[in-house]
Amino acid sequence: MKEKLKTILLFLLVGSSLAMTQQLWMQFPERVTNFFEPEISYSSSYLLSDMIAPNKYLVGFGQSNYTMIYDANKYGIWDTSKESFAQLLSSDTIRIEEPEEGYRPGQTGETAVVFYFSESLSTYILAKAWNVNEPNNIVDTIPYVDRISIVQGSGDPFFVFSGEGRDVLVYDSGISVDSVISEIRDLEASDDFDYYYSLSEIFPTDVGDIYVPYEIRHSLPVVYVSNDVVTMTSEEKGTLAERFLEKEIDYIRQIVESNGSTIYINDNQVLKFNLNGTVEYFRSLEDTIQERNLYLSLSTAAEFISQKAYSAKGMYLAGIEKIEADGSLGYSLTYRYRIRGIPVLLGNREVHEYVEIEVFNNQVRSYQQLFRGELDLNIAHLQDSRKIMSSFDVIDQNYPYLESRYLQYSGESREDLGDQLVQKVLSSVEDITISYYDAGLKDQEERLVGVWLIRAHEKVYAFNAYSGMLVYER
C-alpha cells in the first residue's frame, strides 16, 4: 500500500514539476512573549474580532498553485480581507447565487484566498465583530460559516460563504478587492511560500478540502515553555488576585493548601492557583438568565479576558457549547493559543484547552487559564536543524495505523471495501495542520515538538513532524 501511494505521489510530482518554482522559507514573528509586560487595554470589539481570526488560510495563485499560511497576522492578507467582508455584510447592493455542485474556491484555477475557522461561527456574530451594525440578508441566507473566501475569478471578483455543508456566492461590483489581490501577488512575487496541492488531484472524489505540501524545506523555530504558576512570586499572585477579585490584597482572604495550591477569596468570588499551571476563577451568578445571547456572551468574555487574563496574546476561539447552571442558560467557550503564529496542542490530560470560560450573557461564572508561557532564551532566530516531513509522507508512513483506526471506527472490513479502501481512509481525514505539541511533562524548559495534527473520524492524531512517529492521540 505504501508503495502504491508513493507511486501515485511521484507521478503527480513529475507532472507538476515544471509548474513548481517556488519554495517556502517559513518565517515567524520574532516577538517572544513576556507575560508580565505592562498591561495593554483592548476594547471588547477588538478582542472579539481578534479571537475569531482563522486558524489558517489557503492562498490560490491560479493554475492550481497553492500555499497554506498558519499565522493570520502574516502578510496582511487577513486584515485587508476583513475590511472587504465588513463592507460586503453591510452592503444593500449584493447579489447571492448558488454555485455549481462540487465547487470549491480556488480549485478551478482562480486566484483566491480561503480562510478556515476552527469552529463553525454565526455569520451575524462575524458581522457584529467587524462593527457592522445592521447586517444584510447574507446572515439569513447562510447563518453559520466555517470558511469564507475571496475569489478573483475570470469575471468580477466574488465572495464565498461556506458552512453546514453548503456554499453561497456573493457578488457586489461596488466593493473592490484590489488590495487583497495585490497582497496575494506580493506574496507570489516574494517566493516566500511552499507549494501545496489538493488531495483531490490524486483522488478526485470524496477527499474533501484537504491540502498537503510537496516539501517543507525549513523547520519550525525552537521554542521552550514553562509552568508560570510554579515560578510566580507571592507578590505576582497577589497582583493578579487584586485584578480578578477587584479588591486590595490586604482585604482578600488567602489559603495555602497542603499540596502548595493558593486560594484567594472575596465574598462570592474565588481565585485558585494550581501547581499544574492552571488558574481558576469562580463567581456565583447574581441573576437568573432564562434566554441565551451568544453575541452578548462573547462580548462579555472578550471584555473579561482583556481586563483579567494573564495574557490574551495568541488566543483564538476554538469551541462554543451551550450549558445550564444554577437554573440559568449560558455558553462554555474554549480558546486555544499560538506561539510564533503556530497553534499549540496541549498534551496534559488534566487541561483540555488553554482557556475555558462559562458565560451567561453579561455574567462570567467561571474562568480557567493555563499559565504556560514561552521562555525568552535568546533563541528567537534558532531553527530546528532537522527537516520537516511532508504531511503526505507522514500519512504514508502511518497508513496501516490510520487504516486500522478507520476500519475500527466505520465497522467496515478490508474485504468489503477492496480497491476503495485507500480512498475511504484518506476521505476520513478532515483536517491537517502544522502545530506545536506541548506534552506538559516539565515545569521548566519544556521544548515544544513540531507535529502534523491530523483530525479524522472524531479523533485527533499528532505525528512528530520530523520523524513521523505518533506522539499523541485523543
How many individual β-strands? 25
CATH class of the largest domain: Mainly Beta
| Total number of distinct structural domains | 3
Total of DSSP H or I helical runs spanning 4+ residues = 13
Q: What is the helix fraction of residues, given as a range?
A: 25-40%
**CATH-assigned fold name of the largest domain:** Immunoglobulin-like
User: Under the CATH scheme, which architecture of the largest domain would be assigned?
Assistant: Sandwich
Structural class by SSE content? alpha+beta
Q: Name the average pLDDT.
A: 84
Note the overall shape: globular
Amino- and carboxy-terminal Cα gap: 26 Å
Strand fraction equals: 25-35%
Report on the biggest sheet. Answer: 13 strands, mixed
- Radius of gyration, rounded? 23 Å
Low-confidence segments = 4-46
Question: How would you describe this structure to a colleague?
Answer:
- By secondary structure, the chain is α+β, with helices and mostly antiparallel strands.
- It has three domains: 31-193, Immunoglobulin-like (Sandwich), CATH 2.60.40; 224-374, 2-Layer Sandwich (TATA-Binding Protein); 391-473, no CATH class.
- 26% of the residues lie in helices and 32% in strands.
- The chain contains 13 helices and 25 strands.
- The protein has helices spanning 2-16, 44-51, 77-90, 123-129, 138-141, 178-190, 228-231, 234-245, 294-308, 391-397, 399-410, 414-417, 421-427, and strands at 56-62, 65-69, 95-97, 111-122, 144-151, 158-163, 166-171, 196-198, 211-213, 224-227, 253-256, 262-266, 269-273, 278-283, 315-325, 328-339, 342-346, 355-360, 363-370, 372-374, 429-438, 446-447, 449-456, 459-464, 470-473.
- The strands form four sheets. Strands 11, 12, 13, 14, 15, 16, 17, 18, 19, 21, 23, 24 and 25 form a 13-stranded mixed sheet that branches. A seven-stranded antiparallel sheet has the order 2-1-4-5-6-7-3.
- Helix 2 crosses helix 9, helix 3 runs antiparallel to helix 6 (178-190) and helix 11 (399-410) packs across helix 13.
- Residues 4-46 have low confidence and may be disordered.
